[in-house]
């Protein structure tokens, strides 16, 4: 850990937020400014520091990205039309991705068949959440479909990657899933014990706010413990973080109504920006400059393979403009691509130029697609409504 690098990363984090605040008409999401700032700090421009200097904090930040995405997702969505259509759209995307990448592998353009194919099916729900919430796009009918397609596009690829590409093998990945299931049972028993009263219940209720912050500290411990289970960053921990977020929302319920705002403050206030700035620092700009057409190829494929099916699957339930918005949200990807590229490079199954191009294409989707989604929205920008206690998670 380098304190000098961390200071520079914190400065970029603050500057990105200030720029967005000073120029409200600027349609560039804050995450793009964080990535761009990381590129400037990185070895290819100013060489202020390296991503490895803030690796631990960046790993926690990535965990927060997926924890908050899982916390946002309401499992009841998958019993609705929105969830069923999201699963169908992702399945079509997977079929298209396998076919297209199979052709690229046969021609020698791609060596890591499965990582690249799965990369084309991902959606960066955690990355998109701040933008969608700020613009009030998570409320109403469209919000349900956006959350469902984003949740499926984030969970299903991570699940597949953990099982088929996880650094500890399929058995460890399945074990991590089992551990999360056990966690759900344990949390359910704890919730029952807290609700039944007694001294523990009184301590938890009294310590939720002010200086104790028991529920927040417990959540941070849960996340850090998931990451600490692995000695290196890989998708098994990411999967656990996402599912833990889903479990956590069900466990907390109405017992800690302020927890979500606190998680936003800790995650988006510090750890998540560190992850994105670190990702920008680690981006191999030289490889992208040497083979820019690869980046453009992956960018077009992300839009066609992941976004294209949404135009058909949602044809009878959403008007044309909202279908385009859903397609653009579906095709926005980044955190999982960063992890996929790292897995491919470490295992030497992915060409370095393809790893850089895949991440670069993800950066381009984050740069362009959320801005287009906002531009297509004809309503005035308003804050997303706060869901009723115990109701569906449409705006949190």
What tags apply to this protein structure?
single chain; 396 residues; mainly alpha; 17 helices; disordered C terminus
- Quote the distance from N terminus to C terminus: 33 Å
Radius of gyration: 20 Å
Strand content: under 5%
Helix/strand/pairing class, anyone? mainly alpha
Helical content stands at: over 70%
Q: Tell me about the largest β-sheet.
A: none
**In one word, what is the shape?**
globular
Helical stretch count?
17
Helices, strands, pairings?
Elements lengths: L2 H20 L7 H12 L13 H18 L8 H26 L6 H7 L5 H10 L5 H25 L4 H27 L3 H8 L7 H15 L6 H18 L6 H24 L2 H6 L1 H22 L6 H12 L3 H13 L4 H25 L20
Short description:
This protein is 73% helix and 0% strand. With 396 residues, it is an all-alpha fold. It is globular.
